[in-house]
Amino acid sequence: MVFEEKMIMNGEPDDEEEEEEEEEDMVDPLETVRQKCEEAEHCVHTRERLEQCETRVGSRSSTEEDCTEELFDFLHARDHCVSVTSTFGPSNSVQHLQVSQALVPSNVLKYKT
């Protein structure tokens, strides 16, 4: 009882509220890099394919199709960009991604329709 009164008198509960507010303001750097990578050309393309698949599957009442392949393609492209960003830095990641795409044979980049 006395301890609780001291905490209230000393204003420690306010300190806890401030700590909670500070924690809310913290941003995970990985999420920031992921969001930036999702804006890269190849990631935008794979996200569009994922969204098209989700729309197609959602419009059908009965289908065995799922969008697993499209989801994995998008996650792979995004994670590749993230890994390049963490290795080469954010300014070089998009350039590296474009160069790496240029090195992949065009038939590998084409998707089944």
Automatic annotation (TrEMBL):
<protein>
    <submittedName>
        <fullName>Ubiquinol-cytochrome c reductase hinge protein</fullName>
    </submittedName>
</protein>
<dbReference type="Pfam" id="PF02320">
    <property type="entry name" value="UCR_hinge"/>
</dbReference>
<comment type="similarity">
    <text>Belongs to the UQCRH/QCR6 family.</text>
</comment>
<feature type="compositionally biased region" description="Acidic residues">
    <location>
        <begin position="12"/>
        <end position="28"/>
    </location>
</feature>
<feature type="region of interest" description="Disordered">
    <location>
        <begin position="1"/>
        <end position="28"/>
    </location>
</feature>
<dbReference type="InterPro" id="IPR036811">
    <property type="entry name" value="Ubol_cytC_Rdtase_hinge_dom_sf"/>
</dbReference>
<dbReference type="GO" id="GO:0005743">
    <property type="term" value="C:mitochondrial inner membrane"/>
</dbReference>
<feature type="domain" description="Ubiquinol-cytochrome C reductase hinge">
    <location>
        <begin position="28"/>
        <end position="83"/>
    </location>
</feature>
<dbReference type="InterPro" id="IPR003422">
    <property type="entry name" value="Cyt_b-c1_6"/>
</dbReference>
<keyword id="KW-0679">Respiratory chain</keyword>
<dbReference type="InterPro" id="IPR023184">
    <property type="entry name" value="Ubol_cytC_Rdtase_hinge_dom"/>
</dbReference>
<keyword id="KW-0496">Mitochondrion</keyword>
<keyword id="KW-0249">Electron transport</keyword>
<dbReference type="GO" id="GO:0006122">
    <property type="term" value="P:mitochondrial electron transport, ubiquinol to cytochrome c"/>
</dbReference>
<keyword id="KW-0999">Mitochondrion inner membrane</keyword>
<keyword id="KW-0472">Membrane</keyword>
<keyword id="KW-0813">Transport</keyword>
